Amino acid sequence: MPHRHPIFVLTVAVLIGLCFGTTPSAAQPPDVIGQWSLVAPLPYFPVHTHLLPTGKVMIWPGDGGVSGNDPRSWDPANGSVASLSKPGYDLFCSGHSFLADGTLFVAGGHISTFEGLSRASTYNPFTNTWNTALPDMNAGRWYPTTTVLANGDVLTIAGDIDTSVGHNLLPQVFQVSTGTWRDLTSAQLDLEDYPRMLLAPNGKVFNAAASTTTRYLDTSGTGAWSFVANRVGGYRDYGSAVMYAPGKVLVMGGGQDPPAKTAEVIDLNAASPTWRSVGSMQFARRHLNATLLPDGTVLVTGGYSGPGFGFFDTSPSTAVHAAELWDPATETWSTMARASIPRVYHSAALLLPDGRVLSTGGNGHPETETYSPPYLFKGPRPTITSAPSSVAYGQSFFVETPDASTTSKITMLRLSSVTHAFNQSQYINQLSFSQCTGGLGVAAPPSGKVAPPGYYLLFLLNGSGVPSFAKIIQVHDAPPPPTVDPSCLPDGLPDVIVTSLSYASGVFTSTVTNQGTAATPAGIAIGVGYSVDGVFRTFSAINGPLAAGASVTLGTDGVHFTIPSGTHTITTFVDDVNRFAESDETNNQLSQSITIGGTDTLAPPTCRGRVANIWVSNNTIFGGPDSGRPYTGTLRSTNDNDVIVGTGANDSINGAGGNDIMCGGAGRNTLRGGQGNDRLFGESGNDRLFGGPGRDLCNGGKGRDKVSGCERLK
How far is CA 263 from CA 93, 302, 357, in A? Predict the structure, then answer.
C-alpha cells in the first residue's frame, strides 16, 4: 500500500534502530541464538523477493512513488547487484510463485492504491527474459495470492480490482500446458488481500488465514469451497502461515491493536482436522516473515508490535528486532539474536542455498542483513559432491557425499517467493534415504500433492543438525534416466502392506504391516482407503512413523458404510494417496469376498401399513441421521414425516420436526414425539409414550403403558 512520509523520519528511525539493534541477547553464543550480519545495502528497499533456480535472489521495489518495473538480482556469494530485464509494467503488489520449469509466474500489479492490473507474465531466470504475452485475467488483482497446484498449474485468487468494484471474487487457474485461464465460477468468494493459501496433501488448496474460518478450495472443474475448521486465535491480517510438514500448518502473529503473539497449528492429515493453540512467541508482531529452515524449524523475523497498521517504524519500541525460532517437536519458541535493522511493513526474508536467511526491506530500508541460524556454528558441514539436476516423483536417486555415515536427515525445500509477510512458494519434505557405496540412496517426494513441481534446495544434515550447502534440484513428473545402480537404493525404505481385512456392522478393520527396512516418515499419515465392488466408501488413517517390522490395526475413521446384503468384493489400499516413497509400490492392496446377511436383509419393515424409512437390521441403523452406525438402543428422526420402526428390544425412539409415525416393537419402549402431529404406537410391550407439543395420536398397544401429552388415545 503506497504511503509517503518525510525522509527525515526514516533517517531518524534507521539511526535509532541501529543503536538499539546491536544489543546482544544476554550475550549468548551464536550456536544458541545465531548471528546477524550487515551486508552491502541494496539500491532500494525491495517489496518482493525470490530465490531463483540459479542461486541468486531476484528483487523489485514499490511504494513511495517507486515503480516495480525495476527488477534486480543479488548474488549471495559476493553481495553484488545486477539489473535484470524489465517487464514494462509495475510489478508492485502482484502475486507470484515458481512454475515447474523454474520460471517465475507473476499475476496482477499496480495501477494505484487498491487498483490492480489484470496482467500475467513469466520471467525466465535462465535467459533473463520476460513473457508478457500471457492472456489477461478476468479483472485486475492488487494483492493476489498465487499457489502452484499438484499438476503444476497455478491458482490465482483474491486481490483488488479497483476502489469502485472492490475485491476480485473469482478464483482462476492458469493452465500451464495451454497458456489459458480456467474460471472457478462455482467458488466465488470475497477474501481478504493476500490470503494465506497452501497446497494440502489431498490436492486441495487450504485457506489458513487471515480469516478465522479456514476452508479447502477444490480447484477441479468450476471449483468448490468446503469448511475445514475455525481457528482459535482470531483474525490474523499480516500474520504469516507455513506448512512445516506435509499437511501440517502453523500460523502466528498478525492482527491489530495490539498485534498477537499467539500461534496455532492444524494437521490436515487427521480425519477431522481442528486448530489448537501452541506456545506463544515472546513478542507480539505483525508484518513478520516466517521462513522454513533445513532442519524443519521455523524462523520468524521482524514485525511491528504497536497499535494500528504500522506502516513505518517511527518508534524503536514497536519494531521487533529479535528473531524467534519454533521447534515442531516441542511446539515452543526460542528467542534468537537481535537484528540491527527494523523490519516492518514491506519487509521480506528467504532461505539461501548456504543455509543463511536473507532479510530485506521494510519501507525506507535498503540496508540488508543475513541471519546465520545456530546450526551454522555447531561444527563442520556435510558435503554434497554431486546430485542429479532433476528427479521424478517417487524416484530413488543417488547423492554422492563423503558424509554418508554421519547424515541423519535429508530435507528438500521449495524455492521462496515472498511479499507482504507471506511466502507463496515454500514447502518442505523430509526424505527417506539409505547409505550406499560412495553416498546415499534417496527417495524423492511421492507426488505433487506434497511437493508441487518445481525447483528445490536439497540439504543433507548431520547428527548435530548442521546442513550442507544445498544442491538445487528440479522435481517433476517425467522420469529421468537412472542415476545409479538400482540395487543400492531399496535399502532404508518402508514398504507397507495390508495383512488382514474384516468388516462388521458398518466398520472396516485392517492391519497394516511395514515389511520394509526403514520406518515410515514421522508425521506423515498412513492412509487406508476402503472400497466395495470397486467404489471408494471410507478410510482409516494414523500418523507415522511406523517402525520397520511393526504392525498397526486401524478401524474406520471416515463415515461408517453399511454393505447391502449379498456377496461383494471389499478392497483396502494402504498409502492410497501415495504420501511417501516405498521400496515396492505395487503391493499396497488386499481384496476379499464377503457375504452379508440373507436376501431380505435390507427389506424395511412396516408400521401400520407404512414402509419404514428408519429401522434396524443386523444391528445396524438404516436411514435417519445415524444411518450406517451400530444400533445402541436409540433411533432418531431426520426431520419430518418419518416412519420409524424399533426392534424386539427396549427401544428409545425420538421424533424431530413432526408428523412422524413410530412403532416400538415388542420391547419396553419409550416413544417421544417431535414438534408436529405425530402418531405413536407402543405395540406389545410395557411402553411410555410422550406426545410432545403437537396434536398427537398415541396407541399404547397390549402392554401396561404410560401415556402423556397425547390429544388422541386408542
Answer: 26, 16, 22
